[in-house]
Specification:
This protein is an all-alpha fold. It contains 8 helices and 2 strands. It is globular, with a radius of gyration of 23 Å.
Amino acid sequence: MGKKGFALISVLTASLFTFSGLSADPFSGKQEEEVSPNEDLMREHGILNRLLLIYQEIAKRIEHKQEFPIDALANSAKIVRNFLEDYHEKLEEEYIFPRFEKTHQLADLVKTLKDQHDAGRQLTDYILSHANEQMLKDEEQKHLLAHYLRLYIRMFRPHEAREDTVLFPAFRKLLSQDEYDKLGDKFEEREHRLFGENGFEKTVDQLAEIEKQLNIYNLSQFTPNLKRNKEASYESKSK
C-alpha cells in the first residue's frame, strides 16, 4: 500500500472514532471513551450511591446488634474522603458552583449544596475516627456511629438527586461547547493525577470487594419476590 493510501486509512479511522465519541491512537489500537463533564460527575454519583448502600447496611447491622467487618467501614469512609470529598466535591466547588455564583443563578441551591459538603466532611471525620475496634467496643459510641451514618445517607441522597436533575442540566447551559469540552479534559487530567489511569474503574472495583464482604454485592437480592409477598398478604387477610 502506498503512503497516500495509508494516510487515507488513518484519517478515516480517526474520523470514525471522533464521530462515535471515542478517541483513539490508530497505531496503538487503544480506545478511550470521551465522557462529558456532567456524565463524569453523574457516574461518580453512582459511586456515592453504592457507598450509601454500604453505610446503610453497616448502620442496620449495628442497630440489630449484628457483626460487620470493621475494615469495610474504614475502607468505605476512605473512599468517601479521597474520591468524593477531595476529588468529586472539589471539582464542583472549583468549577461548577462559582459559575452560578458569578451569574447569580440558583444561589440558594448552591449555598445549600456547599453547606452540605461541609457537613459531610464533618460526618466523615467522625466516621473515620470510629472505624476501629477500640472505639466500636463502646456500645454508646457504636450507636452514635450508626446515627451519623444515617445522617450522611439522609443528606446525600437528595443532595445528589438535586444536582443530577437541576444543577448539572443548568450548568451545561452556561458554557459554550468549547468551554464544556475543555472542562471535560480538566476533569480527566485531575482524576489521572490523583488516582492514576482508570481511577474511576479502580474505585468501582474497590466498592465491589467491600460489597462482597458485606454480602450485598449480588444485585438480584434486592429484587422483591412479589409472588411470595402477595401470598403472605392473602394469608394474612384470610385469618
